[in-house]
Amino acid sequence: MPVRFLHSGDSALVVEFGDAIDRALNDRVLALDAHVREAQLAGVVETVPTYRSLMIHYSPLATTAADLIRAVETFLDRPGAETAAKHTWRVPVCYEGRYAPDLDDVAKRLGLTAERIVALHLSVPYRIYMMGFMPGFPYMGDLVPALVLPRRENPRVRVPPGSVAIALNQTAIYPWESPGGWHLIGTTPVRMFDLAWDPPTLFATGDTVVFERVDAAAFDDLRAASDSGRFRLAPQESPR
């Protein structure tokens, strides 16, 4: 599929690379994002990488969509070296009792045991394709095929913060209490967003998340340490 340039209102340009959730497409998005940020193009206010496209917000008083398209076209065939290192995050998750309210239902719907669901969820590293919906919310793929489920028919009004969830071929972590329609199979004590941090989000697009199982007692200790500011998850640099 050829690259498409789409206008979003009068102050944003969308550069679309494809129509699927695909790591190779996402790599192209992240490469272009790095090139645009490094070039410091006149008028560019912000870039927003997604699964398969990059949105470029710009000031129409300082540049035009046509100028941006010409600049972006020069970046499309450049190597995809990124300016910012990506990280691997080892995220503790409790899959027990009240911390996993949908686990038994998911197991029943998929014809698997709860332990098998947990084992499969832990079995692969996850790519953060994009951040969105609310500050700090990571959309991660790719779930093993055996865990693929549609969203809940009846979304919850309140999903607790830290909930680890699955839907379709993705997994995610809710950083805030919010409505949500994903299946909740675990909870992490890790804080995902804090305005006192720079940047305020823990994860970034392109990072890798590896989930690690903890029991309820360890979860409670980590949650208390996180809430008091004594614990903040530290990353590992990912090989590129």
> What is the N-to-C succession of helices and strands?
EEHEEHEHHEEEEEEEEHE
Global outline: globular
Low-confidence stretches: none
Average pLDDT, to the nearest integer? 93
Number of domains: 2
Count up the helices.
Answer: 5
CATH fold annotation of the largest domain: Cyclophilin
Describe the structure.
This protein has 240 residues and is of the alpha+beta class. The protein has two domains: 4-75, Gyrase A, domain 2, CATH 3.30.1360.40; 87-237, Cyclophilin-like (Cyclophilin). Helix content is 24%, strand content 28%. An eight-stranded mixed sheet has the order 12-9-10-7-6-13-5-14. It has a four-stranded antiparallel sheet with strand order 1-2-4-3. Strands 8-11 form a two-stranded antiparallel sheet. A hairpin with a 2-residue loop joins β9 (163-167) and β10 (170-173). α3 (103-110) crosses α4 (114-122). The radius of gyration is 19 Å and the shape is globular.
Question: What's a concise summary of this model?
Answer:
The protein is of the alpha+beta class and 240 residues long. Helices cover 24% and strands 28% of the residues.
